[in-house]
Amino acid sequence: MYIERDPNGDFVLESGDIADRFGLSREEFRRRIHQGLVTSTVERGEAEDIGTCRLSVRLGNRMWRALLNNEGEVQNEAVTFVRGRGHTPRS
To answer: InterPro entries under this entry (predicted)?
Structure first.
């Protein structure tokens, strides 16, 4: 898998590719994006990891993560289950 960048340097993910990772159709994944249920982050490598990036896309209790080299090629990826953000009791 190769992930492109737009002219601003932002990563452009193909929704169908990511939907597949979560076992969803493209339409269902896009619906969840529009509902605000999908979040993403980009972490840039430092020191010996300079030039690499880790992309994370979270949907509910599942997270897809991919490590990219400086060419935008996915070196490894995985979908894992993550814990909730926790519950803060009201006073």
So the answer is: DUF6522
By the 8 A CB rule, do 2 and 73 touch? yes
CA atoms within 13 A on the CB side of 49: 10
Buried b (16+ CB within 10 A) or exposed e, 8-43: eeeeeeeeeebbebbebeeeebeebbeeeebeeeee
Domain boundaries, the chain: 4-81
Q: Per-residue pLDDT tens for 32-76?
A: 999 999 999 999 999 998 989 999 999 999 999 999 998 889 999
Q: What is the pLDDT of residues 7-16, one digit of tens each?
A: 998 999 999 9
